[in-house]
């Protein structure tokens, strides 16, 4: 009963905060539509930094919301970003139709472009909660130690992945602008810088977790010996492979900016709904959470492989059709 209650609490808190996520992605897309790239990037990075501080504050003592705190921390940081998006949009752009400062046709075009830009990101963001819901359902039937691990993973995940999210979103903004100006060398540079930053951050964090994994496991899971063993194995395997998941998020963010929205949706669906969910399903079938952790490590490595394959294909495609010209650089 306690296991099911924990699973329900986490998913319900995520559903409640999902509106903030939709507003966040829509606001970010609107900022790109009106060419406020620099302001959007600064706001997103600040929001991610705010999330890093808010989530632990809400999760642990004295507030002590537990796994729901990570969700609420993310939602609050996103809502703060939405407020800043709205401020900059209304401050720097007039919508007075009487003075013909913005024509109705232009507004319709920008609105449609906004919807197309935001649709892929919003739809992809739905895949993760669906996968988490299905995965939690299976793991909740294994036992208290396993559901405790799901809660711990949800606490560690933001610390590992949030900087990668910020890097990916910032890179997508820069790549989108370079793509519109047909500057292929700039796109290559931004991809290279983003990948290097993701690997550097997650490698540094992996070293910290590996050095302190035993102590950290006892502190977090002191109430359950089996949970300590599972968490120690998790901290030994996941941090050294999770850069692959960061690359997949970078791919998910940047493909729509390169007019590859449908491909991005297909890749996200296959990677998240099919592969990620399958990791937990197989673990449930074998009644062993260690198998889940091993499969998640392989899942992360597959993400890096997919990133390399897709990048090579994009390079060949654009080189073949001559889309970019050196004179435009």
What does this structure look like?
The chain has 11 helices and no strands. It is mainly alpha-helical. Helix 2 runs antiparallel to helix 3 (67-92), helix 7 packs antiparallel against helix 8 (225-237) and helix 9 packs antiparallel against helix 10 (261-285). Residues 95-102 and 320-329 have low confidence and may be disordered.
In brief:
The chain is mainly alpha-helical. The chain contains eleven helices and no strands.
SS strand fraction: under 5%
User: Which secondary-structure class do the elements indicate?
Assistant: mainly alpha
Mean pLDDT: 76
Uncertain segments are 95-102, 320-329
In whole angstroms, the N-to-C terminal distance is: 62 Å
Element layout with pairings:
Layout: H1 2-33, H2 37-59, H3 67-92, H4 104-139, H5 144-180, H6 184-211, H7 213-220, H8 225-237, H9 243-254, H10 261-285, H11 289-321
Helix pairs in contact: 1-3, 1-4, 1-5, 2-3, 2-5, 4-10, 5-6, 5-8, 5-9, 6-9, 7-8, 8-11, 9-10, 9-11, 10-11
Q: What labels would you give this structure?
A:
mainly alpha; disordered C terminus; 329 residues; globular
């Amino acid at each position: 009963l306690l296991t099911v209650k924990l699973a329900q609490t986490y998913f319900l808190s995520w559903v409640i905060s999902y509106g903030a996520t939709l507003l966040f992605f829509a606001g970010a897309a609107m900022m790109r539509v009106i060419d406020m790239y620099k302001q959007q990037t600064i706001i997103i990075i600040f929001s991610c930094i705010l999330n890093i501080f808010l989530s632990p504050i809400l999760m642990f003592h004295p507030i002590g919301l537990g796994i729901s705190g990570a969700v609420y921390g993310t939602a609050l940081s996103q809502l703060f970003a939405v407020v800043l998006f709205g401020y900059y949009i209304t401050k720097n752009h007039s919508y007075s139709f009487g003075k013909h400062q913005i024509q109705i046709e232009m507004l319709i075009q920008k609105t449609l472009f906004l919807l197309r830009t935001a649709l892929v990101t919003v739809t992809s963001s739905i895949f993760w909660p669906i996968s988490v819901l299905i995965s939690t359902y299976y793991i909740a039937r294994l036992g208290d130690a396993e559901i405790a691990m799901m809660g711990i993973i949800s606490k560690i995940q933001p610390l590992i992945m949030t900087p990668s999210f910020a890097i990916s979103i910032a890179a997508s903004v820069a790549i989108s602008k370079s793509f519109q100006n047909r500057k292929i060398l700039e796109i290559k540079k931004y991809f290279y810088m983003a990948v290097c930053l993701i690997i550097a951050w997650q490698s540094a964090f992996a070293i910290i977790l590996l050095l302190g994994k035993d102590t950290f496991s006892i502190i977090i899971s002191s109430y359950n010996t089996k949970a300590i063993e599972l968490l120690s194995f998790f901290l030994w395997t996941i941090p050294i492979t999770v850069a692959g998941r960061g690359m997949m998020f970078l791919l998910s963010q940047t493909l729509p900016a390169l007019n590859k929205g449908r491909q991005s949706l297909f890749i996200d669906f296959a990677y998240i709904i099919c592969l990620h969910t399958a990791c937990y399903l197989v673990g449930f079938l074998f009644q062993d959470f260690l198998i889940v952790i091993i499969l998640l490590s392989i899942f992360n490595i597959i993400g890096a492989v997919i990133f390399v394959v897709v990048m090579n294909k994009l390079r060949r495609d654009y080189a073949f059709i001559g889309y970019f010209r050196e004179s435009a650089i």
